[in-house]
Amino acid sequence: MTLLTDKPRDHVDPQSTVATPPAESRAARLTSFAVSDFPVPNGREEEWRFTPVDRLGGVFADEADDDREGDYAADYDVSGVLDLMGDSLAPGQAPRGTVLVPGDRGAVVASAHCAEALHLVLEAEKEYAEPLRVNVHGNGAGRLSSAHYVVEAKHHSKGLLILDHTGAADHRGNLEVIVGEGADLTVVTLQRWDDDAIHLGQHDASVGRDGKYKHIAVSLGGSIVRVNSNVRYDGPGGEATLLGVYFADAGQHLEHRSFVDHNAPHTNSLVTYKGALQGDGAHTVWVGDVLIRKEAEGIDTYELNRNLVLTEGARADSIPNLEIETGEIAGAGHASSTGRFDDEQLFYLMSRGIDELNARRLVVRGFFADIIAKIGVPEVVDTLMAAIEEELAADMEAAA
Asked: With 387 labelled, which of 50, 69, 181, 182 sits at a CA distance of 20 to 30 A?
């Protein structure tokens, strides 16, 4: 049975598309390690109907990476984690594949063509003061790159992993995370690609008893970026927080999908994504799925998406789906809204002597203020705000 929350949905701007939940249960979606199970999408599939699949031929190809005699399509720089690195994992070598099973064409070809997965292990009962970093730099637009990362946070460990993407490539990357009992892990994925990069990613996590998991997705660069962030639970008491911030400009397609599978009792989740758009053809997509299974009594969940359209010609699609199989829950709800830039706020600020660029900056900062407070990672916040101000300055130059 599918039920929608009785909490009211926010006003939705006509530029936004809000669809009804698909008839098929989210739990019934196909997952498989077989490439043949996922034909190349044509754009009519529910999972791909918002994505410009005609521009994704490279990342869909059942082909090995474009590495030419040691000239790799992407370089990987690992810092702050050298003492945490275990032996690389081949396909099927546990714990690889115990959490992440590919759910679409991009993920399955990434899995098939990544012979060695980076394996990071946070020791039990240890707190890591410094961030763990994996920097991915693409060495050329159109060059095919595949990656797989496995991160294990042993019981009662605590740490922060930053996965940073720069340069350009046709990149497909899988991340699987195992959060042990009482562990506390934050994963930040930064998409700071050049304008001609393409990135498809599937990030799956399992949260153990009383564990805490925070996934932060910040998408600023790239021609097409699509990241799926999925969570399920391996015991009661687990908490999952999925945060996302994105800023799309002319011609960019930034797509974020999340799936929280409440498959254990007394678990919590909070999903919050916010984005701004400007320029002709700027397109963002957010699809948030939450499944509350029959056995997941006493859970509490909420998902929120907000979009701020700064100029004409931009479009935001926002689709929250909430599927409930038991009424014995603490709370469940969702909200989604898309609105244009508030000219009255801009006029108010300018009437008090603030120039237009700084007035626009203040309005946009106010829009992002609450989610920035939730991120709580100064390095990420500074990067994000610098990028937003750069985008606003570029917009003002174009308008001048």
From this structure: 50
Do 230 and 110 form a contact (C-beta atoms < 8 A)? Answer: no
Q: How many Cβ atoms from other residues are within 10 Å of residue 61's Cβ?
A: 15
What digits encode the pLDDT tens for the residues 227-264? 999 999 999 999 999 999 999 999 999 999 999 999 99
Residue 93, C-beta contacts closer than 8 angstroms, at least 6 positions apart: none
The CA distance from 245 to 190, in Å, is 10
* CA atoms of 206 and 201, how far apart (whole Å): 17
pTM as predicted: 0.91
Q: Span 190-209, mean pLDDT? A: 97
Distance CA 322, CA 309 (A): 25
In this predicted model, what pLDDT tens digit does every residue of 62-98 receive, in sequence order?
999 999 877 899 999 988 776 788 889 999 999 999 9
Task: Report the alpha-carbon distance of residue 230 to residue 236 in Å, rounded.
Answer: 17
- The alpha-helical segments, DSSP class H, found in 13-172 are 57-60, 105-112
Give the whole-angstrom CA distance, residue 156 versus residue 122: 10
First CA to last CA across the chain, in angstroms? 54
The answer to whether the beta carbons of residues 253 and 227 sit under 8 Å apart is no
Distance CA 165, CA 155 (A): 29
